[in-house]
Amino acid sequence: MTTEDPMVAALLREREGYVQRGMDDRVAQVDDQLRLRGVEPPTGEKTTAPSTRETPPKGRRARAPEKA
Predict the structure, then answer these.
(1) CA dihedral (23, 11, 52, 45) positive or negative
(2) How far apart are the C-alpha atoms of 15 and 1, rounded to whole Å?
(3) Is the per-residue pLDDT at 49 higher than 80?
(4) Rounded distance, CA 66 to CA 58, Å?
(5) CA atoms of 15 and 40, how far apart (whole Å)
(6) Chain-centre distance for alpha carbon 4
(7) By three-state DSSP, how is residue 64 classified?
(8) Percentage of the chain exceeding pLDDT 90
(9) Which helix (H) or strand (E) holds 15?
């Protein structure tokens, strides 16, 4: 889902993190906030694979390995 509203975009990102962590109560709270803003929450629960700490976030470079 794409949106021009930065608050809705932030809520959708927040919701995705809660879904990946299995925090259903928080997902429900974010869904309520999305509905208050006139947006129907996504129905598909896990849309992307959970990220690992080894893979850098999209659009960012990996950190150089630390030297002893």
Answers:
(1) positive
(2) 12
(3) no
(4) 21
(5) 13
(6) 16
(7) coil
(8) 53
(9) helix 6-21
pLDDT tens digits, 16-25: 999 999 999 9
Amino acid identity, position 59: G
> What burial class does residue 37 get, using C-beta atoms within 10 Å of its C-beta: 0-12 exposed, 13-18 middle, 19+ buried?
exposed
Question: Whole-prediction pTM value?
Answer: 0.60
- Compute how many other C-beta atoms are within 10 angstroms of the C-beta atom of residue 10: 12
> How far apart, in whole angstroms, are the C-alpha atoms of residue 63 and residue 53?
11
Q: How far is CA 25 from CA 4, 19, 38, 41, 57, in A?
A: 26, 10, 20, 14, 26
Q: Return the structure tokens found at 60.
A: 């960012």
User: In the structure encoding, which two tokens stand for residue 53, read together?
Assistant: 């700490």
